[in-house]
Amino acid sequence: MKKPNVVMIVADDHRYDALHCAGDPVVRTSHLDALAAKGVRFANTHMMGGRSAALCTPCRACIHSGVSVFRCADGQTIAPHLALLPETLRHAGYATFAVGKWHNDKHAFDRSFAGGSRLFFGGMNDHYDVPLHDYTPGGTYEKEDAYRLEAHSTDVFTEAAAEFLSQYERDEPFMLYLAYTAPHDPRMAPPEYHAMYREEEIPLPPNYMPEHPFDNGELQIRDEQLEAWPRTPEAVRKHNADYYAMITHMDAGIGRVMRTLQERGLADNTIVVYTADHGLALGRHGLMGKQNLYDSSVRIPLIVAGSGVPEGAVVADLTCQIDIFPTICELTGTPVPETVEGRSLAAAMRGSDDGRRAKVGAAYKELQRMIKDERWKLIRYTKTADGQGTDKLQLFDLQEDPWEINDLSGLPEYADKVEELLYKLRKWQEEVGDPFL
């Protein structure tokens, strides 16, 4: 029997709960909702953070390698000894094809893909002026050789992905890697999508704050300067309306990709994975960016649907983005490389506890560390030698306080819980190779 095809879609800055099917009553994501209804939505998936402000880079390295953020890359360069997901499928007989954003090194890209179109080697850009390259084996993809199209990045990438699917006639299975730059700023959705959201009707998140209550070490970074202080309700509503418009536009593009699969008769033998590199605050806790370890930034969407995947399931277990690699391997019958540290979620999507995680952690530079179990979450902040940040703990009971509003760390009755989680944090740091123990 022919192995299933794989379509892997990665968004940029898509927060875990900015999906209608995840409980957001405002955002319109009909195609992603339909994908979730046909497959499994992992409701508690986390990124691992990174050692740079540009979190896209380490998060994507984690996805590609299935390895801890502290072991998978040095800056943009993924460790050359690590197996990569598209590379692994390529060696297993897949035709691997890339569209859109690649924010890691070009050597890793070259060993991963045998084709590609409308490639963007960068972090962010004006969505109507993205510098693009077409695939070249061993290509250096120099900036001066880039070309531009007079169309929105989401439409450019969608068109390239649909064209690949429409023209694919080879016998071997394919992996299509489609990486959007949406909904990353500058948030400039086409007018018809922007018109879907009236700013004054956008609800404020329950954890909206005009300013973050203490120095977390990154209050002046670029992302935080996208809005003035204090953050006003009107400004936060506008940012979220623009964010929703970008998501809905991207959702429409994903719908076109799904229709093309159906029209070509490929849908029944294709696994579709949708995820993101990390989330975004947009007014939560007085923050605008992703350089923090609150759930709005560390939790990401993850939907898996298609061949061999149960329909209509929601998995609430703690999961991590490094788990995507071995999951796709298991679903395609591809051996998992020895370098992979993630755990396959194939059993979890069928209701099994096999491989279940008791905790997940995340890091941001040397400034912040997080550990989380099924109910409790601890964030540890560290003041650097040059005076950035604050030496501080936060403890949240996520069962009673899912919006992370009430810090319990200073209450005597929670002292034992703080010590327990600090121990778990240290063990996690040892496990993942954190140099800032």
Automatic annotation (TrEMBL):
<protein>
    <submittedName>
        <fullName>Arylsulfatase</fullName>
        <ecNumber>3.1.6.1</ecNumber>
    </submittedName>
</protein>
<keyword id="KW-0378">Hydrolase</keyword>
<dbReference type="InterPro" id="IPR024607">
    <property type="entry name" value="Sulfatase_CS"/>
</dbReference>
<dbReference type="InterPro" id="IPR000917">
    <property type="entry name" value="Sulfatase_N"/>
</dbReference>
<dbReference type="InterPro" id="IPR050738">
    <property type="entry name" value="Sulfatase"/>
</dbReference>
<dbReference type="InterPro" id="IPR017850">
    <property type="entry name" value="Alkaline_phosphatase_core_sf"/>
</dbReference>
<dbReference type="Pfam" id="PF00884">
    <property type="entry name" value="Sulfatase"/>
</dbReference>
<feature type="domain" description="Sulfatase N-terminal">
    <location>
        <begin position="4"/>
        <end position="333"/>
    </location>
</feature>
<comment type="similarity">
    <text>Belongs to the sulfatase family.</text>
</comment>
<keyword id="KW-0479">Metal-binding</keyword>
<keyword id="KW-0106">Calcium</keyword>
<keyword id="KW-0732">Signal</keyword>
<dbReference type="GO" id="GO:0004065">
    <property type="term" value="F:arylsulfatase activity"/>
</dbReference>
